[in-house]
Amino acid sequence: MIAPSANRASQSREVRYARRELLGMTAREREQLLDAVIEHLVGIR
């Protein structure tokens, strides 16, 4: 007999997560970080 929790796990939906790349960041997070760095560098002048 299959345990109820094991049966539920086999019927659960696949969960899609944001794709993580360089430094464990998503493309959007990397873009936001680069924008902040550029703003900071431009503001130093």
Question: Can you characterise this structure?
Answer:
The model has no long low-confidence stretch (mean pLDDT 77). The protein contains two helices and no strands. The protein is mainly alpha-helical and 45 residues long. Helices cover 58% and strands 0% of the residues.
Q: TL;DR of this structure?
A:
This protein is an all-alpha fold and 45 residues long.
Strand content: under 5%
Tell me, rounded to a whole number, the average pLDDT: 77
Radius of gyration: 21 Å
**Helix share, percent:** 55-70%
Main structural class: mainly alpha
- Taking pLDDT < 50 over at least 5 consecutive residues as the criterion, the unreliable ranges are none
Secondary structure tally, helices: 2
Order of helices and strands: HH
Give the overall shape, derived from the CA principal axes.
rod-shaped
> N- to C-terminal separation?
71 Å
- The counted number of beta strands is 0
* Main β sheet profile: none
Key descriptive features of the protein:
single chain, 45 residues, mainly alpha, 2 helices, rod-shaped
Secondary structure elements and their pairing?
Elements: H1 4-11, H2 27-44
